[in-house]
């Protein structure tokens, strides 16, 4: 498998500067073996060279550039590409990416919004985005049966991204926001996510955990950080597979007895909360191995909880 990166393409030169992007692509084109993987380093103000289209057997492409870069419209002609990673900021995500019908992995960073054409990528398995604003996401994601993992970091959340909640076979969903000025309410019903195993949300003000989340039957790990949670009092009995619960950096004052229904729970992270009370019923969490109460206002832990048979890590302070 031929793989070319900037540091490999500059062996003969005395200058520490990498060759220009055109030279990197031409070197790939004249290599003895077809170039299947390419790391293309752009200099300041340098455009993505059109010669890239000639790499007809390219499967994986990583673009590295300082500052803002523009993906050309012809990027959609790179048929056969299975992985695209852009280590630079895009002014906007081009709709032409929706033409990459073999793309399985996509990682981008943009100051703009979600491009609807991304929801049409039929082979997409892994999506990793950093956006300026996250709002509407097309319901077309309901047809993306191969989509397994979505991670989105956004400066601002403006609306509920409903398209993410209909993906039928999604196993990992991670959403992180710096602000949520509109404070959109979490939906009461989730039509998809029946296969979801890992859910991590940070920066979405919720006040309380939406009951619909504990109805996700396959959920193994739930993280809700910086969500302004006031209470954990809800019926946890349907979260039968939950083993990891992280509710750190919220506004919780107590850990209620209802959590004791999580009979498979191994890790409970409640650090950075104004917690003053643990319900003694938590002593029924017989599978618990880690209890993190760092940076809380708790003065002591009830002895039955400290005596849990599998508890190996108890942090408080």
UniProtKB/TrEMBL annotation:
InterPro entries: Leu-rich_rpt, Leu-rich_rpt_typical-subtyp, LRR_dom_sf, LRR_domain-containing. Keywords: Leucine-rich repeat, Repeat. The keyword RNA-binding does not apply. GO terms for cellular component: cytoplasm. The keyword Repeat applies. Signal peptide: none annotated. PANTHER family: PTHR48051, RAS SUPPRESSOR PROTEIN 1. This is Leucine Rich repeat protein.
